[in-house]
Design goal:
Layout (H helix, E strand, L loop, with lengths): L6 H25 L2 H9 L5 H9 L8 H25 L5 H29 L5 H26 L7 H33 L2
Helix pairs in contact: 2-3, 3-7, 4-5, 4-7, 5-6, 6-7
């Protein structure tokens, strides 16, 4: 005659099995490298290769969506500042170039201000009802910075020559990292709204 196993024994085996599976899953999550996190986060950015390249060389730790969004804004802010310095050094030959260059310097200066405000907002994110307001501010400012960068490039459409190609190269570089920063900020908000 076969003896039935006591319920408490079966329950104990079941609990041990669940704990083992949970531990294995937690270990997989904890062992995922920052590189994997970065690649997953950047996979659907506007410029994924630029996203991975600029943020993998970034000096700060970025282990969660908030850190990564802040790092992306810091990269964008740094590039905008360098572009602003570069634009100040350019010598224009014609009044049209001077006008376009002056307008572009103002727009990139505005981008620097907007990205600075965005970074401050992300560094002081609060949970609760303020979170949505702060995220809305960050998204608005980064979008405005991106618009300024595009407007700067539009001012050079009717201008030919080296100055146009130099400005185009510098500002396009800023616009691409800014676009990625906006994507990562949007991703931060999405990850927050998915969490319980």
């Amino acid at each position: 005659m076969r003896m039935a196993l006591p319920f408490s024994f079966l329950l104990s085996i079941f609990i041990i099995l669940i704990i083992s599976i949970s531990y294995g899953e937690a270990k997989k999550i904890n062992n995922s490298s920052p590189k994997d996190f970065l690649q997953t986060s950047c996979a659907h950015a506007s410029y994924p290769n630029i996203c991975i390249r600029t943020l993998s060389s970034y000096a700060g730790p970025a282990n969660n969506p908030r850190d990564l969004a802040q790092a992306a804004v810091k990269v964008s802010l740094g590039r905008a500042r360098k572009a602003s310095d570069y634009l100040r050094q350019l010598q224009s030959r014609s009044k049209r170039e001077q006008g376009a260059l002056h307008d572009c310097m103002e727009q990139i200066g505005d981008s620097v201000d907007e990205l600075s405000k965005t970074l401050s907002e992300l560094q002081h994110l609060r949970s609760g009802s303020d979170f949505k307001w702060q995220m809305s501010n960050a998204q608005t400012w980064v979008s405005a910075a991106l618009t300024n960068e595009d407007t700067c490039l539009d001012g050079f459409k009717e201008i030919d020559g080296k100055i146009r190609s130099d400005v185009n190269r510098k500002v396009t570089n800023v616009a691409r990292v800014t676009s990625n920063a906006l994507y990562l900020i949007n991703r931060l908000e999405e990850s927050r709204s998915r969490s319980p």
